[in-house]
Amino acid sequence: VFIAQSRASGSHRDVEDEELTRIFVMIPKTYTEEDLREKFKMYGDIEYCSIIKNKTTGESKGLGYVRYLKPSQAARAIEECDRSYRAILAEPKNKSSESFEHDYYSNNMRQELRGNTLPFCVQPEFCSFEKTETRIQEPVSKRLSVVSRLPFIQEQLFALFDLVPGLEYCDVQRDPHTNSGYAVIQYSTAASAIYAKYKLHGFEYPPGNRLTVIFLEDGNDSSE
Q1: Cα–Cα distance between 40 and 29 in angstroms, integer?
Q2: Which parts of the sequence belong to the RRM domain (predicted)?
Q3: Is 152 exposed, middle or buried (0-12, 13-18, 19+ CB in 10 A)?
Q4: Please, is 182 exposed, middle or buried when counting C-beta atoms within 10 Å of its C-beta (0-12, 13-18, 19+)?
Q5: Looking at residue 58, what DSSP letter applies?
């Protein structure tokens, strides 16, 4: 038994090489390639492992690839590895890896935040962003403050705000006295920050816990 391919995708061997032996996983940002290999070598012969890193800082994005020699080994890894790795078959290399990573984050975060019924946009007013709505009444910046009555998990909050392109950093802090959540988010442009605030202010994460998102002064001229 093997997985059939479309008529336009070439020989079966090409499809097997590109689509059936390479898996994509979510990993702790502290993992090295050796750690990744060690965790997944029990499922079969590994051809290579690679960790996706931020092009600017060189830090791990918490994502990686594992390439096996056989499709059956990749399938076994997906079935048997810990669910926290969220393992799936990777897109072929000729497709945009960045868009694949973004879609992967988006799908996982939407499933995690939604549960069984919660849509990504909880409030209808957050689901439509009118292009004509250009006047912003409050001072804007590239930096946002996010407050919650529940503590944040760094990786999950990063993945949520990374749904908006241009995320530069996410710094999660916790008040030991109140156990509430507080984080500072910064984007590469004010436009991204405006859109993130518009989409995520009032968003329930986790369900029942509403986020408060406001602009923070970043030292730049907000009139831009």
Answers
A1: 16
A2: 21-95
A3: buried
A4: middle
A5: -
The backbone torsions φ and ψ at residue 10, rounded to the nearest 5 degrees and listed phi first, read 85, -160
* Angle value at C-alpha 46, between 41 and 51, nearest 5 degrees: 90
Helices (H) and strands (E) in the chain, counts: 6, 8
Are 214 and 197 in contact, with CB atoms under 8 Å apart? yes
- Per-residue pLDDT, 48: 92
Strands 22-26 and 60-68 come out as antiparallel
Closest listed residue to residue 51, CA positions, set 61, 42, 43:
61
**Contact in structure between 106 and 116 (CB atoms under 8 Å):** no
Residue ranges in 25-141 assigned as alpha helix (H): 33-40, 71-80, 97-114
Which amino acid would we find at residue 148? S
Over its length of 224 residues, how does the chain's per-residue pLDDT go in tens digits?
Answer: 555 655 555 554 544 455 789 999 999 999 999 999 999 999 999 999 999 988 888 898 889 999 999 999 999 999 999 988 888 888 766 555 555 666 665 566 555 545 443 344 433 434 444 444 444 456 788 999 999 888 888 888 898 999 888 899 898 887 667 778 889 999 999 888 999 998 899 888 878 888 999 998 876 655 55
Q: Which of 99, 93, 84 is nearest to 28 (CA)?
A: 84
Whole-angstrom CA distances from 69 to 45, 80, 195, 221 are 6, 17, 43, 54
Which amino acid belongs to residue 168? E
